[in-house]
Specification:
The protein has 25 helices and 32 strands. By secondary structure, the chain is α/β, with parallel strands linked by helices. A hairpin with a 4-residue loop joins β7 and β8. Belongs to the class-I aminoacyl-tRNA synthetase family. ValS type 2 subfamily. Its EC number is 6.1.1.9.
Length: 859
């Protein structure tokens, strides 16, 4: 024996015991020398999702990361050198918000650095605190707090992932804000810029007024909001009457640039090409035709404002209209009225709105329209979808800003087709998830906006030359040399300039924006795999074998990574994508922090044990949602029962000595091993196809047959060393245990390792995956004998006798083939049933017990 078998095996304490052993032994380290020897074909590499280090992990992380670990453990046991890194997604808006709430601070980049700064408090979420109550601090102070808090979060995340038994190589980790990461992200961007794939433009931008940052299309979500239609009169310029429009956003009247109706709308065809004057502001605007105008919506004619929604942007661009932005970055009406508002009445009306929030401006302009008689009606409130930043609290506005973009195929048919083609060349698990990727790619409406007006992130490595007036000359973009990376333009100086030329005429100015967090996360293969940093490693792991992730970020993480790989290497970044489903609560509602129904995993793991939780996760197929009820986690309880049974069954099997030179000679033993061969083949095919649930299903079903039927049938023979069949039974039990533990090892990582240590050297997780032994046996013998055992047990139960009750005579009737099989296991059946005489009769139909006589003293 390799380790002492405990008197009473338990699950408690196995996580700490084996995590320490794996770390000490380097069980999961990527063996680079072995990988180099075997080449790329001998490596299995994973583009692991980097969790956002801005809070706590939830049960969904346990669910999806376990799915990946199952496949990884299988491939490792199959002999692959596994590259399984872990990253931490530190930067971005979620981290900033958490820091603001946790420390009670907010960033003000105009403030100087304070080396002795101490935050007003530390801890709690303080979500109810107002921004005005948060202490303003310098950008550097703010970033230091971000780094401090994310570092602490990452330590907790790693601890939980170790408790979960993830077979990650913890020496292969990265952070999305480290110097190496910043260099890689900046280098990739500069190469995009050099190839013309990155560009800057002044354009309407979806804007979050709380975060004061631009938001990309992939980060949007629709939320139902209440609104009312306001019927407003526009006046025909020729004085012949009014045209009535209906709008939910009357506060944008000062930004109106046109009215638009469908070209087929007979009501408005006579007015196309004519003009009307806006209510209150008396600005002349054209009446135009566009097919996006809906004839059955409101009055059938709409006002185009710059900008009320994304349709306004399309109309503005395609109809070549002027830009009269009235909203500032803070979401308030700008102080200066558009130049076209020249009348005294119009300017006075605008002054009533200046400085107000959108909500307050709407209330005031409705009052003004009522006073002027130009508000004709207000509809009953209704709900409609409104665009939000997925992590924001208020509806997005649209403001005109200068931003950096990356071409993504929205306006490049050749690139879009290439992205679709590469997606079709991948294997998707489940396959229908490919459609979501294709729908997103085909539905893109604009290039990828990658700049953010935030603080904690990868700086955009650009400076601008200043003209003679000290204004930015956007045609003079100054990029660093690759050897300078990483750079922070706000503190570093471009080649050919000195610090005293910063911000002065003829000098330079820094780009202060940072990259969207997805612009860095889209490079996770490059970050983990040593791209442009370690060529040998990159060639060993890329393109990666597996991208595991959630279905909700196909449009963000999966698509953006595919885009970066396509632009840089002209290939897909992985061969396979494994997409996990959602965790839903008992009411089948998706778990999310916003709904307040998220379950944190620490208590579940501590109470039920890791293997039980891993079993619950492994029971769900990829792409399928799984319900989780923390009050009654049925699947978790089943998993715990299985893990305990594995330990007890292993102890029992190991109690039977295997004589030297033992061979499998008994028909029932051979039948069991032949059945196990089929299970091994089925489980192997399932894991190869990323169907871990099927692999667990077939393995678990056989395991219970092995314990409940076969082990009971042969234990008397295995005990009795005088029996000629003892060696066969003991050997068959030992062979089956070895295979079963390896089949279950990906799921029950701790219990399998513990039981393995009782009779084998080394870790089960680097042992060879079981192979069919091709033993000459008939699985039908085990099936028939198990059915007979069930019949014998039932007969004793119906006779209200103990299963240990001796039987004088018992008669079984079955078809001739079944009877022939039962005769080959007759001795084991008599032993387990304590049967003196077993009568086997030929008949028709299913096997049945026709006669049972209990021993007289027990009757």
């Amino acid at each position: 024996m390799s380790a002492q078998i405990p008197d009473k095996p338990v699950l408690e304490g196995l996580e700490d015991k084996w995590d320490a052993a794996w770390a000490e032994q380097g069980t999961y380290l990527f063996d680079r020398a072995r990988a180099a020897e075997s080449g790329r074909a001998g490596v299995f590499s994973v583009d692991t999702p980097p969790p956002t280090a801005s809070g706590s992990l939830h049960i969904g992380h346990v669910f999806s990361f376990t799915h990946t670990d199952l496949k990884v453990r299988f491939e490792r046991m199959r002999g692959k050198s596994v590259f399984y890194p872990m990253g931490w997604d530190d930067n971005g808006l979620p981290t900033e918000r958490r820091v603001q709430n946790y420390y009670g601070v907010r960033c003000d980049p105009t403030l100087p650095y304070d080396a002795s700064f101490v935050p007003p408090f530390e801890g709690g979420d303080n979500k109810s605190s107002r921004a005005a109550d948060q202490v303003p601090i310098s950008r550097r102070n703010f970033i230091e707090l971000c780094e401090k808090l994310t570092f602490e979060d990452e330590k907790q995340f790693e601890s939980l992932f170790r408790q979960l038994g993830l077979s990650v190589d913890w020496t292969q980790t990265y952070r999305t804000i480290s110097d190496d990461t910043i260099r890689t992200s900046q280098l990739a961007f500069l190469r995009n810029l050099e190839r013309g794939e990155a560009y800057q433009a002044l354009a309407p931008t979806l804007w979050d007024i709380d975060f004061r940052s631009a938001i990309a299309q992939a980060e949007l979500e629709d939320r139902d909001q209440q609104a009312s239609y306001h019927r407003i009169a526009f006046h025909k310029t020729d004085g012949s009457g009014d045209i009535h429009i209906e709008t939910t956003r009357p506060e944008l009247l000062p930004a109106c640039v046109a009215l638009v109706a469908n070209p087929d709308d007979e009501r408005y065809k006579p007015y196309f090409g004519q003009t009307v004057r806006t209510p209150l502001f008396d600005v002349e605007v054209p009446v135009l035709a566009h097919p996006l105008a809906q004839q059955d919506k409101g009055s059938g004619i709409a006002m185009i404002c710059t900008f009320g929604d994304v349709t306004d942007i399309i109309w503005w661009r395609e109809l070549d209209l002027p830009n009269r932005t009235i909203l500032g970055a803070d979401g308030r009406i700008l102080a200066e009225a558009p130049e076209v508002i020249v009348g005294e009445t119009g300017r006075a009306a605008y002054a009533e709105l200046a400085g107000k929030t959108v909500f307050s401006a709407k209330k005031r302009i409705v009052e003004l329209l009522e006073e002027s008689g130009e508000l004709l009606a207000v509809s009953k409130p209704f709900t409609h979808p409104v665009k939000f930043f997925e992590k924001g609290d208020r509806p997005l506005e649209i403001v005109s800003t200068r931003q950096w973009y990356l071409r993504n195929g929205a306006r490049d048919e050749e690139l879009r087709d290439r992205l679709i083609q590469l997606g079709q060349g991948m294997s998707w698990h489940p396959d229908f998830m490919r459609v979501r990727y294709e729908n997103w790619t085909n539905g893109l409406t604009g290039d990828w906006l990658v700049s953010r007006q935030r603080f904690f992130g990868v700086p955009i490595p650009i400076w601008y030359g200043l003209d003679e007036n000290g204004e930015r000359d956007y045609s003079r973009v100054i990029a660093p040399d690759v050897s300078q990376l990483p750079v922070d333009p706000t503190t570093d100086v471009p080649a050919g300039y000195t610090e005293d030329q910063r911000g002065v005429a003829g000098g330079f100015d820094a780009e202060r924006d940072i990259f969207d967090t997805w612009a860095t996360s889209s490079l996770t293969p490059q970050l983990a795999g040593g791209w442009q940093r370690d060529d040998e490693l990159w060639n060993l792991v890329a393109p990666f074998d597996l991208r595991p992730q959630g279905q909700d970020i196909i449009r963000t993480w999966l698509f953006s990574t595919m885009l970066r790989s396509t632009l840089e290497d002209g290939r897909a970044p992985w061969s396979d994508a494994a997409i996990s489903g959602f965790i839903v609560d008992p009411d089948r509602k998706k778990m999310s922090k916003s709904k307040g129904n998220v379950v944190t995993p620490a208590d579940i793991l501590a109470h039920h044990g890791t293997d039980a939780v891993r079993y619950w996760a492994a029971s769900s197929r990829l792409g399928s949602d799984a319900a989780f009820d923390p009050q009654n986690p049925t699947q978790v309880k089943i998993g715990r029962r299985l893990a305990i049974k594995v330990l007890n069954a292993a102890k029992f099997v190991l109690s039977f000595p295997v004589p030297e030179g033992a061979r499998v000679t008994h028909a029932l033993d051979a039948a069991m091993l032949a059945t196990l061969d089929r299970v091994i083949a089925d489980a192997t095919r399932a894991y190869e196809a990323y169907d871990h649930a099927r692999a667990l299903e077939v393995t678990e079903a056989f395991f219970w047959t092995f314990c409940d039927d076969y082990l009971e049938l042969v234990k008397e023979r295995a005990y009795n060393q005088a029996d000629s069949g003892q060696a066969s039974a003991a050997l068959a039990l030992r062979l089956a245990l070895s295979s079963l533990l390896r089949l279950l090892a990906p799921v029950l990582a701790f219990a399998a390792e513990e039981a393995w240590s009782w009779f084998e050297e080394g870790s089960i997780h680097v042992a060879a995956w079981p192979q069919p032994r091709d033993i000459d046996g008939d699985p039908a013998i085990l099936t028939a004998t198990s059915a007979a055992l069930i019949g014998i047990r039932r007969a004793k139960t119906e006779a209200k006798a103990s299963q240990k009750t001796p039987v004088t005579i018992l008669t079984l009737r079955a078809d001739a083939a079944t009877v022939g099989r039962l005769r080959q296991a007759e001795g084991d059946l008599k032993a387990v049933g304590r049967i003196t005489e077993l009568e086997l009769l030929d008949g028709e139909g299913d096997l049945s017990v026709e006669r049972v006589e209990l021993a007289a003293q027990e009757a």
